[in-house]
Design goal:
globular; Quinone Oxidoreductase, Chain A, domain 1; six-stranded parallel beta sheet; 339 residues; 10 helices; alpha/beta; 2 domains; binds NADP nicotinamide-adenine-dinucleotide phosphate; Rossmann fold; 15 strands
Length: 339
């Protein structure tokens, strides 16, 4: 059987252009390719994430660069086709598969997916997965929130930002979104319940932020870097906590993001660098809490779904330009579907 895969066509410079990636066809793995302790899985939903920009060129937490012609990495919700201990055929797992239709994976690295009734399994790639855990660690561990605090979140409608904003609101804080464009500002307040939203693309966005945070910013989750980071830090309240989570501006080869020391000193601020993998100890509590909030309808998710593996490069391009609205997923196949 043949399968489609997405491979690196050339080393990207700046934002990844659609033709930096290319669709290739090759042999699909079959049962004979499955070794001891391995599974054959069929990719259902593929996760498209900002860290992949760094991963392609060897700038993500020490991972080696993807060679030209190499498979684009990425995690998926996948269906077990050839089982192994602990993973029955037909079960869903969250696992590193890369951007392809079928994969042989180590069973030990596959996480069984259990989502509450009414929640899609794809949530395991977003609000109930790595992005959600990053937000949970930021809000419940690093921000040291007190009810009534003003909490600003950038990239506020994405899976990290929207989880953080909703958790801050549920903790009794005033959550303020920084987003790209009026449509996302509307979503931030109407869908995710932020108290206010500021459009970072508006020329006077720092004035709008001041109006939205008249007593200053007590806690800030930065997913943006660049001018957004500097603009929010200039408005910190005394004793503020800043959590550095993402560098969207810099990933696309923008200039290195810098922090202005003056306001940090003057406001006696604390800055935390966040790497989600350091907070695995929170996972059980995180899964239980977010699962319950989703089930009870007290937390909402938003997905941007694309259909077919061939759509993945364009979906990634949208994400890295900030044009995505919600967690970016590519639906590669449907559960129980035929090859
Ligand atoms: N540190 C960690 O362990 C960790 C873990 C997970 C994710 N992250 C980071 O968290 C951030 C959010 O991730 P996510 O998965 O939730 O993605 P996302 O929010 O769905 O997408 C990224 C968003 O960044 C915003 N953005 C801000 N400045 C931008 C710029 N200069 N160019 C392009 N986009 C810009 C855009 O939203 P607006 O247009 O609304 O601003 C865009 O939609 C990313 O930086 C990611 O790398 C870090």
């Amino acid at each position: 059987m043949r399968q489609q895969r997405v491979v690196l066509a050339r080393v990207p410079h700046g934002a990844v252009a659609e033709d930096d990636l290319r669709l290739a066809t090759g042999a699909a793995p079959g049962p004979d390719d499955v070794g001891e302790g391995q599974l054959l899985v069929r990719v259902l939903d593929l996760s498209v994430d900002p860290y992949l920009r760094g991963a392609l060129v060897g700038r993500h937490l020490g991972s080696p660069a993807v060679p030209v012609g190499g498979l684009v990495p990425g995690r998926s919700v996948a269906e077990v086709v050839v089982p192994s201990a602990g993973h029955a055929a037909g079960n869903l797992v969250e696992v590193e598969t890369g951007w392809q239709e079928w994969a042989v994976v180590d069973a030990a690295g596959a996480q069984p997916i259990t989502v509450p009734e009414g929640v899609p399994p794809s949530a395991a790639l977003g609000v109930l997965g790595m992005p959600g855990l990053a937000a949970y660690a930021a809000v419940t561990r690093l921000m040291a929130l007190t009810p009534g605090d003003t909490v600003v979140v950038s990239a506020a409608t994405g899976p990290v930002g929207s989880t953080a904003g909703q958790l801050a609101r549920l903790a009794g804080c005033r959550a303020v979104a920084v987003v790209g464009g009026p449509e996302k500002a509307r979503l931030a307040t109407q869908h995710f319940g932020y108290a206010a939203a500021v459009d970072r693309l508006a020329p006077d966005w720092t004035d709008l932020l001041r109006a939205a945070c008249p007593d200053g910013v007590d806690a800030y989750l930065d997913n943006a870097g660049g001018d957004v980071l500097r603009g929010v830090v200039a408005q910190l309240a005394r004793g503020a906590r800043v959590v550095l989570c993402g560098l969207m501006d810099q990933y696309n080869d923008g200039p290195p993001s810098t922090l202005p020391a003056g306001p940090l000193i003057g406001r006696r601020a604390t800055v935390h660098g966040l790497v989600v993998y350091d907070h695995e100890d929170l996972r059980q509590r995180f899964t239980a809490r977010i699962g319950k909030l989703l089930h009870d309808g007290r937390m909402r998710l938003l997905e941007e779904r694309h259909t077919g593996l061939a759509a993945a490069p364009a979906a990634f391009d949208r994400l890295m330009r900030g044009a995505n609205v919600g967690k970016v997923l590519v639906e590669v196949a449907t559960r129980g579907g035929t090859a």
